[in-house]
Amino acid sequence: YTSPIAPPADEDRESIAVNYLTQLYGLPNQSNSDTEKRSSGMSLRLKEMQQFFRLKVTGKLDEETLDVMKKPRCGVPDVAA
Amino acid sequence: YSTFQGDYKWKKHDLTYRIENYTPDMSVAEVDDSIKRALQLWADVTPLRFTRLYRGTADIMISFGVGDHQDGYPFDGPNGLLAHAFPPFEGIGGDAHFDDDEKFFYRSPQGYNLFLVAAHEFGHSLGLEHSRDPGALMYPTYIHRDVDTFVLPKDDVDGIQSLYGPNPDETGPRPTPPVTPNKCDPKLVLDAVTMLRGEIMFFKDSFFWRSSPHRGTVEQHLITGFWPEIPGHIDAAFESPLEDKVFIIKGEKVWALYGYEMAQGYPKSLSMFRLPRKVQKVDAVLYDETSYKILFFVNKQIYSYNEEQRRLEKGYPKPVEVVFPGMKGKVTAAFQYQGFNYLFSGSKMFEFGAYNKLRRVLNNNYFLPC
Known about the structure:
By secondary structure, chain A is mostly helical. Chain A has 3 helices and 1 strand, in the order H-H-H-E. The N and C termini of chain A lie far apart (46 Å).
């Protein structure tokens, strides 16, 4: 009867995604200031990743996409290696 | 498959490798053997030959490290990134690094099999990038496979031979490189189809497609990537809403899934459904939710098992054509969806409505859009 395991908090999700896309999809390290540019860069790389893994291409961080990001894998980028 | 942009391939076929250090997870001999077999996988299908060096600089320098290991691409602790390698070029080119925060194994299915991870990384060392084929060794995510029976998939063979050509010393027949089934193949014949808590699962060879009608997505996966215990080329599968289990049948063995988990206490025998002893293989199974009856297709006959009463129905077996008029061919897969019964025969799917009246004959990828 332990309380259900809380899903990763939003910032956890976000940092998992930023790390993954930075290392494997060439997401440029951006400071927090240019938020607009940052989120569009994020959305573009998310689409690339969703395309690669034949997920629904939404540019949004949905559960299926996050699941793939958590899978153990090779550290060589999938694009722009 | 894909290869690195630009001319990233070795200009020579005789390459050297050196194991610079070892992981404490395995014995030296196990690491040596895993590395040697992983390189041999690529040598078997190309003119490439690998010689081990014990000192100095080799083309492929192999090492274990953790975190920031001074190549500008730090590892990330347990799980996540397992290893990486550099495409063929001078200096660090060809080198393979393994994250020693991972638990590498020689044989056991848990943890990460060093032979499989190394074989993938050496694909990079030779000039391959990641493949989008979910059955390929060069697919980015780690998938455990039976290393005793592992054969380099065709996608990987095609990729490496696009760089170096075939093995000129080919001696005698080799095991056929497995091809990942293509849902656009008009001749696709499915092994089994079942519902699983609202998703539709299509099985073919060592793979399954997972179709989520409400999400509108179709994913393809290796069966072993989800359930290492379940073999490829299964005969039949069906979901029992009563038990909230999916049963998977191959030969006389029956496995059960509880959601995406393996149910305990399986495999059991086909006799759990009281089928006559002479039935040693079924072709398809259809679960009828309206009557809790399980229809077993055996050649051109049907046996009906009443799940509530846990016994075979009287008056069976019956010819398939008596139960499903118009179903002439051998049924290879079957499932019920939104009240309709779908029987697969060859590359066609027969849709039966109320009173098992044949409504339509469709292509079998009707639910698997190309």
